[in-house]
Amino acid sequence: MEDFNRKNHWETIYDTKALNEVSWYQPLPKTSLDFIESNALTKDAAIIDIGGGDSFLADHLLELGYTNITVLDISEKAINRAKKRLGDKAENVKWIVSDITLFNPTEKYAVWHDRAVFHFLTDTSDIEKYKQIAASAIADNGKMLIGTFSESGPKKCSGIEIKQYSANLLQETFKTDFKVIECFFENHTTPFDTIQNFVFCSFEKK
After folding, report:
1. What is the pLDDT of residues 76-89, one digit of tens each?
2. Per-residue burial over 129-152, b = 16 or more CB atoms within 10 Å of its CB, e = otherwise
3. pTM, full prediction
4. Domains in the chain: ranges and CATH
5. Do 198 and 149 form a contact (C-beta atoms < 8 A)?
6. Which phi and psi angles does 110 have, rounded to 5°?
7. Per-residue pLDDT tens digits for 2-37
8. Fewest C-beta atoms under 10 Å: which of 2, 11, 62, 74?
């Protein structure tokens, strides 16, 4: 795995698969929207979607009137697909092409959302980088939602291994800078009618 190029892998995925041909496809990201609506106290609160790619979360947030949305993804192709779909509305979103472990945030976020990125980080050094970046990027008392495959979920996704988490392990991972609000489990039905079990934990920045 030393020669694995994470960016090239994801550019290839988005170059070869349609929107509804990836397992994480979710026309209505209800869990994510519920979290953001509960924790973004104003419509201009700074929200960042980690690994948002061409998901529909930004579309729904714009429809709900949110005005300070950032989408970060390692794949430029994914972001370009989202921009094309949104048309003129794409100008109302800040787009960042970056590996999350190399992200250099320039603002503080009230809400940090990550559905199915963190579990792709399997090296201890990458996990530590993510934790440090999140801690520096999230405002004091800001909120974070992390969703990963649970211990009952898949062990691989898109051809690469992931790290499964229990609720306790997620809490333990982020306990230095964040206090947990709640954890829960959720089944996601893929476009291929398979079930993926996720664990979600929400946190508050200390």
Report:
1. 999 999 999 999 99
2. bbbebbeebbeeebbbbbbbbbee
3. 0.94
4. 6-14+30-205 (3.40.50.150)
5. yes
6. -80, -30
7. 457 899 988 998 888 887 878 787 989 999 999 999
8. 2
